[in-house]
Design brief:
The protein is mainly alpha-helical and 108 residues long. The chain has helices at 3-27, 32-53, 58-82, 87-107.
Length: 108
């Protein structure tokens, strides 16, 4: 995968996480579990951004995306446990999960 494609797709992941974070800050997360999942994704995205700015190996990038995809799975699972949630939050968490899954498959 070319670096500019990786940067573009990771930017889409960051946007989806940012949307979920904004929703939680403005309207509150439906649960503490979901809020923690989203905050964990945001922190991991910050860390991976640092890795991407440096001289990262392909293995380091793949490992970071793998960790984030697992976190996205947890966030989606927490969302499913909530019952009905606001469509904007649902969309942001699903986009995060889907973008991470797509990126993971392209890197492997």
């Amino acid at each position: 995968m070319r670096r500019d494609d990786l940067d573009r797709q990771f930017g889409q992941v960051r946007q989806a996480i940012g949307d979920a974070m904004s929703f939680c800050h403005e309207r509150g997360a439906p649960s503490e579990t979901l809020r923690r999942c989203i905050e964990d994704l945001d922190r991991e995205a910050d860390e991976l951004s640092q890795v991407l700015r440096g001289d990262a190996s392909h293995g380091d990038i793949v490992a970071g995306i793998d960790r984030m995809e697992s976190m996205g799975d947890r966030a989606l699972g927490a969302l499913r446990q909530e019952g009905p949630v606001h469509p904007d939050l649902l969309d942001a968490v699903r986009r995060t999960h889907d973008e991470l899954s797509r990126l993971k498959h392209q890197l492997h």
